[in-house]
Structure formats: structure tokens, C-alpha cells
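Troubleshooting log. The previous structure file for this entry was overwritten by mistake, so regenerating from the original sequence record. Sequence copied from the archived sheet and checked twice against the printout by T.R.
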Amino acid sequence: KVETIGDAYMVASGVPVSNGTHHAIEVAKMSLDLLAKVLTFEIQHKPGFRLKLRMGMHSGSVVGGVVGTKIPHYSIFGDTVEIAGLMESTGQPMKIQMTESTTSILEQTGGFMYTPRGVVHLPRVGEYSTYWLVGRKEEEVVT
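Regenerated output below.
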């Protein structure tokens, strides 16, 4: 599931069909691949200018459904969506910030590297312990 919100993309895995904890693995892989690609991507009409992505990840439950009458589309709602957005907006360029809930899922797979960022204040939500997703481990990720 991908949704455009202003100049941002919201990506969700495991909706509408739940995929257990595989959502964290899928989104982590995609996020790391996007960072790797943007490092070598050059805008033709702006030589030397580099895009900088800022990404955030959070794992939790959501509610989804079809909204709209003129142009109906599937959308997701809930605290998980809000916190994922705040992970992005309080992050830093060219980094992937994630909550403890996503970090613990990735820790169980054993296939990713991350470092603690520390406690971050999220507007309207409060204090969250966050981590930077920094890469994949050499061995294959367990799926």
C-alpha cells in the first residue's frame, strides 16, 4: 500500500492482508534499497544536486477501508500511521528512524543492523526510544 501525502509517500506492508511480522522486513529492505539508489541518482537538469530522503518506520495495528465517492481509494488510519509519520518528520536526511516496536521485530530476524538514536519527543504523542536502521547483516534475512 502506497499513499502520497504532500511531498511524502506513506508505505504500508501487511494491509489489507496481514503478513505477521514480515511487514517490518519488507519495509526495512525497501528503505535501505531506496537509500542506496538515491546515493547514485542524478537529476539531469541539476547536475551535482543530490536528493536526500528522510524515512521513518513504526509497527502496529491500523484500520483500513475504502474512502471517497468520486475517486474511491483504500486508506489506512490509526496511531501507527501517525507515529510512522512522526518517525519520518523527526528524523534526519539520509537516515531511517524506527521505533522500538519495529526494532524488536527486526532484532528477531537477526538480519539487520541498527544503532540507538535515543529518546525523541514526538509532538502530540510523547517520548519514544528510537533507533537508526543502518544496514543489512551479511547473512540472509530469515523470512
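The longest helix spans residues 22-40. Archived copy saved in two places this time.
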